[in-house]
Design a protein that fits this description.
Flavocytochrome C3, Chain A, domain 2; mainly alpha
């Protein structure tokens, strides 16, 4: 009897532990990565892939952009690929259920779609489900926002988290780092007209 009780207790503990692990992983999977976005947004993906944002993680490696790092007061010989202060702006979703390390979440290295548009896990399913109807009838920006999509062209605050005065690469270091929101929107990736109705 004692042996059966022990087996039941151990089984319950194992099941609860496993369930909690699955739940915590489910929350962490809200970032899907740019390759998932590419499936429906190929033109935007190709345009973004040519930008410095797509490979911004590479800039954190020792010896890369040495002159720029020196000018900003950073050690050019240091590897910044694990520096939390750098990862928040050179990866996607760091500290928010996205990028954790290059070993664990390599698909989220660099500044990807979700860095500006929000975690895709929140809206990807709904967009796929409604794709046919939206393609035929269009959709409103309110519908998109209601499912968690961020439309960065409406507000520069998201950009300023990384391009503001707290960045070691700002206009006080070099005029080329002056952030002009409208210019950057065009430079980041050419925006192809969407079919949503205002």
């Amino acid at each position: 009897m004692l042996k059966k009780t022990l087996i039941v207790v151990v089984s319950v503990i194992f099941t609860m532990t496993f369930s909690l692990m699955l739940l915590s992983n489910a929350e962490a999977v809200k970032y899907v990565g740019a390759k998932k976005c590419k499936a429906c947004h190929l033109k935007q993906y190709k345009s973004w892939k040519k930008t410095s944002m797509s490979n911004s993680f590479e800039n954190l490696k020792a010896g890369v952009k040495a002159d720029e790092k020196t000018k900003a007061g950073l050690d050019p010989a240091k590897d910044y690929t694990t520096d939390a202060g750098c990862l928040k702006c050179h990866t996607t979703g760091y500290g928010q259920g996205g990028f954790t390390s290059i070993e664990e979440t390599p698909k989220l290295a660099g500044v990807q779609c979700e860095s500006c548009h929000g975690p895709g896990g929140e809206y990807k399913t709904v967009m796929k489900k409604n794709k046919k109807a939206w393609k035929e009838n269009g959709y409103t920006s309110e519908e998109l926002k209601a499912i968690g999509l961020i439309i960065p062209s409406e507000d520069e605050k998201g950009c300023m988290v990384c391009h503001g005065k707290d960045s070691p690469f700002n206009e006080t270091v070099d005029a080329k780092y002056k952030f002009n929101f409208k210019e950057r929107l065009e430079k980041t990736h050419k925006h192809f007209p969407l079919k949503y109705k205002k």
